[in-house]
Every structure is written in C-alpha cells, then in structure tokens.
Prior knowledge:
By secondary structure, the protein is of the alpha+beta class. It is built from seven helices and 15 strands.
Amino acid sequence: MEEILKMFRENFPYVSREAETLAEVIGHEGNLFFMKRNLEGRLIGCAIVNGHTILLLVVDKDYRGQGIGEGLLRECEETIGKNGFEKVVLGVGFDYLMPGVPTSKRWAPSVHEHLDPMVNTIASDFFEHRGYEHAWGACNCFDMRMRLEDFCQNDHQIGDNIDDILYRWAVDSDLNEICLCADDACQYQDESFSKYYRNADLYIEDSHQRVLVAEKQGRIVGTLIVSIETEGKDTGNVGCTCVATAETHQGIATKMVMLGTRYLKDIGLKYANLSYTYSNLDKMYGASGYEISTYYFMGVKML
C-alpha cells in the first residue's frame, strides 16, 4: 500500500485526490496487482485491475521506454479477458484514483486553460497507439485549480441573500431536501451526486467538509461541497455542484462556487482545486478564476 501510494504521488503530483480515498481504492478487496521491481527490489512499475477497469498503470520515469508499461498493460488485458470481460476501461470503475489518463490533449474547445507543466500527451499516446479510444467523444474531462491570491470576487460572502436567494451553510435537517435537489439536478446523468451528500460529518459546524446550499423561497435549489485541506496542505476544494433543473441558467452554480471559493481564501488557504469535470463547465468555474490544469483521456478498448 505505502509503496503504491508513494509511486502515485511521485508520478502524478498534479492529481488532486484525498489520501484517504486513494488508500481505500488501492486497498479494495477486488483489486488484482501487477508489479515490476528493479534488481534492488524497489517498485518501479505497477498496475491495478478491478473488474474490467485498469485503475492504475504507472512506470517510474527513469525506467520508461524499456517495455515495462507495455508488459504490464498486456498482463492487465489478458487478465480482464480471461475473467470474461469484453472491454477494458481506463480510470473510473467502482471508484477511481484518476478519472482517466492525464494528458494535455483536448477533444473539444475549452477556455480558462493553464496546464500543469508536467502534463503532456506521452501517456495518452501510449494507450491510443495500442487501440484505446476516448469514450467521451467530443467532450473533455479535466481538473481545474487556482491560486487563491488571484481570487477577486469579494462582493458577497456565505450568509448573503443575492437576487432573492439565500446562500448558507447546510444543517443536518436539510439532508433530505439536499438529496432531492441533487437527484433532480443529475436526473439525466449516469449517477446522482446525492450519495456524496449523505455523509453526516458534512453537517457538523467545524468539519473540514461542509455543504453550501442556495435557498429560494424556503426551498433548497442548489448544493455544493466545500472542503478544507482534504487533498493537501493549504489547499481547498469545491465540488459536487448541483442546481435543481427548474432553477438552472440563473447563475446559482456560479454564485455558489464564488462564495465557496471566497470562504477558502478567507480562512487563509493558498490554493483551490476542483476535480473530474467536463466541457462547458470550464466557463462556469472559470468565472471564479479556476483554470484547467490537466485533461484526461477517458480510454476504452474492446477486446
């Protein structure tokens, strides 16, 4: 576990993911591991398969170009095929370490882009040359980040009533209505965000993760999770943005992100991230100053 976590952090320092979540995914009982070590016994390559998903395939940079990655991929594909699956998915399975393969390549136009200098197309090219295709078509998947010293949307804060909508911290009695809002917002997607809102710790006042809601005429119409240093020191996160279908296109999501981000800045954090989002939302998050830091190749291959 510690070896793999160390290798992950060293090779993907720009990927924003909670340490606890990484440990849970790596330690899942359904995982199959493929390891390569050097003569001294140090781990230099690793792949993790769960079902038909390759959760991780990584080779330390000093050992790339020697066929290690290709060998690991071959083992993964052979195992997935022998276990009765007809396709291989890169990234997201029962959960994920990364949404897909980090890359600087985009599949659709985007705005507010400032890629991490470590990101390139080497990994996505590796998979594309071996038969994998981007499963999202003409749609990007990406992470975004910002330096909070650059945040300048300071006209409002949490607790304000803006255009007859109250933006406030949620309490535990809001949970049912929050889940209804999240389910409504995600009704046309593959999964709902409501499962992320059911954690009771989100409704404790001094928690490192809290729920910001938008309340209109006594009804919750928007939700956002705001996190403090769950993915690293001096770093905050916003995510799981939901707005009730009937209340979209009113700027509610943009306001929640701005208010949540201002809170992160006000408490003294230096950076803010958001993860695993997609085309067109770069405009909404970009209004608060977030910029795309890495794209993901959402690879899939039929066996």
